[in-house]
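As agreed, record copied across for absentees:
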Amino acid sequence: MKILGIESATGASSVALVDDRRVVASASRAGRMGHERFLVPAIDFCFSQAGWEADQLDAIAVDVGPGLFTGIRVGIATAQGLAAMLGIPIMAASSLDALAVRAATRHRHIWSVVDVRRGEVAVAGYQPVPGGAVMDSPPELVSYEHLRGILASDPYDVLLVGDCGVLPPSVLRGMHRVKTGMPRYPSASALSRLVTARVERGEYGDSDIRPMYMREPDVTLGSVHRRVAGLWG
């Protein structure tokens, strides 16, 4: 199954072409600005590297958040434009899930952390399992102080992944059972891996793609659709 993964919800953008869990081509860029300028050229680059045509795609995977408002909107708008043009389904994935599935641990309890600014982070907890991770604490939006309380009350040794660098030193001070690790950002290849697993379970396509902002956005999705459409023109 050929999947295009689109990741732009956090501080890095990435695109990947995946065929039955094998990454055929990928491109990435770190930086909170310019997601919309990166994605379309990166998609074209990956098709060129893979030797694929767009009409060979079976589905598109896109990160719907949580994360940065503009990045989420740009990724969804790009995925929706391509899916409509090609007549293929879109499948949504979470940045928190994408971080957890790539966490380098076998025994530590995983907490994925995504910076949403204004002194808050989105977090979710996961138990590591062979080949991935299973969520055992649903996503929530918390202050830095609240996150410290969550980590302090976790009875397990903890691996913290994602936007650990934005946390004030006081959050992890004295937390000897908590380690920070990789990945720093969710990736398009991880999104595609999550989507492939869903297809193998018999799921195929999400009829309603909604941004997972976790608080009210500053602008509407329609304005971003118009900006992205301009790039394809």
